[in-house]
Specification:
This protein is an all-alpha fold. It has helices spanning 3-16, 20-71. The radius of gyration is 28 Å and the shape is rod-shaped.
């Protein structure tokens, strides 16, 4: 933990004894941040999975185009 974080923690702990709503707010904010972090991780994983799937599909398409090009070498190519 950095000295700034320790200082903030010490300040929060000293203020928490006199203000219980501060504890509640801290708990709510921490829960919100944990929830957002979890959702971000989930969405990131989904995006990477979709990108992998798209990459595989593009590889398959390229392989199919090459195979067709080899079967019909006289056909015009658009590359």
């Amino acid at each position: 933990m950095s000295s700034k974080q320790e200082e903030n923690t010490a300040t929060n702990n000293s203020g928490n004894a006199s203000n219980p709503s501060s504890d509640e707010l801290t708990a709510v904010v921490e829960e919100l941040l944990n929830s957002l972090s979890s959702k971000f991780t989930t969405v990131s994983s989904e995006i990477f999975a979709k990108m992998d799937e798209m990459s595989r599909r593009l590889d398959n398409l390229e392989a199919t185009l090459r195979a067709n090009e080899e079967k019909n070498p006289g056909s015009p190519s658009k590359t």
